[in-house]
């Protein structure tokens, strides 16, 4: 079970972007809707909303449809559910990268590259990336808990289920490590780097593409491990 557990750490690294680089990106987008200014952190609400909607759609629509094809009571196996969640995490990073590419394009067109100011692009364009993360949570985290509860040895079932939650903290550490390495290597020789204080001069989109690439490699490894995994017999 350990390889399956390890691959979910990367998903948690993507999830940690909700409270880190997604906020940095939101700070340099247009946060005004009429006379109201949207706090970038408030967009995580769409993460929660997508979880609530995702659980409802999964239980009421996806499971009954999948049950017809798979002849399984739960519709999807735990490993299939987790795999879908890992794929959603890739879509989240791709969405964030595309938003950043457009933001930088607007900054160049308006000659704002060397000015530390907001770019006239609505912060609401970030909603899809938060929604993808929330949908990924529905599949990955819930599937992960089911997997560890069902597949763990009976004597240490509670311990293994709790151990699955450790991936959340390890994902945050992994995200911090990647960010530290990116900041170090991209600023060698006095270069501006991908993530400078003025994001209009940087390439936050490249950072998002990097996380998406790591997530893609992680998904391939996960699929290989999932195909080799043998479910234990029900006790």
UniProtKB/TrEMBL annotation:
Topology within the bilayer: Multi-pass membrane protein
A GO MF label: transmembrane transporter activity
Leader sequence segment: none
Chief subcellular location: membrane
Top-level taxon: Eukaryota
Pfam families hit by this protein: PTR2
Keyword Transmembrane: yes
GO CC terms, sorted: membrane
InterPro entries: MFS_trans_sf (IPR036259), POT_fam (IPR000109)
Family: Belongs to the major facilitator superfamily. Proton-dependent oligopeptide transporter (POT/PTR) (TC 2.A.17) family.
PANTHER family in UniProt: OLIGOPEPTIDE TRANSPORTER-RELATED (PTHR11654)
Listed name of the protein: Uncharacterized protein
Origin species: Rhynchospora breviuscula
Lineage, opening ranks: Eukaryota, Viridiplantae, Streptophyta, Embryophyta, Tracheophyta
């Amino acid at each position: 079970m350990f390889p399956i557990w390890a691959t979910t750490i990367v998903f948690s690294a993507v999830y940690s972007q909700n409270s880190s680089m997604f906020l940095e990106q939101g700070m340099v987008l247009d946060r005004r809707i009429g006379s109201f200014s949207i706090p970038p952190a408030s967009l995580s609400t769409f993460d929660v909303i997508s979880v609530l909607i995702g659980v409802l759609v999964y239980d009421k629509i996806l499971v009954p449809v999948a049950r017809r094809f798979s002849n399984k009571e739960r519709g999807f196996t735990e490993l299939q559910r987790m795999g879908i969640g890992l794929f959603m995490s890739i879509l989240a990073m791709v969405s964030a990268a595309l938003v950043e590419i457009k933001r930088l394009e607007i900054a160049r067109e308006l000659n704002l590259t060397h000015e530390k100011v907001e770019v006239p692009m609505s912060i609401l364009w970030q909603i899809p990336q938060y929604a993808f993360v929330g949908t990924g949570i529905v599949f990955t985290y819930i599937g992960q808990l089911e997997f560890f509860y069902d597949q763990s040895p009976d004597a240490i079932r509670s311990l293994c289920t709790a151990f699955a939650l450790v991936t959340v903290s390890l994902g945050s550490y992994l995200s911090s490590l990647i960010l530290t390495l990116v900041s170090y290597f991209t600023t060698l020789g006095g270069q501006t780097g991908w993530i400078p204080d003025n994001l209009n001069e940087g390439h936050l989109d490249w950072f998002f593409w990097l996380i998406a690439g790591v997530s893609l490699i992680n998904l391939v490894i996960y699929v290989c491990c999932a195909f080799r995994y043998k479910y234990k017999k029900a006790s």
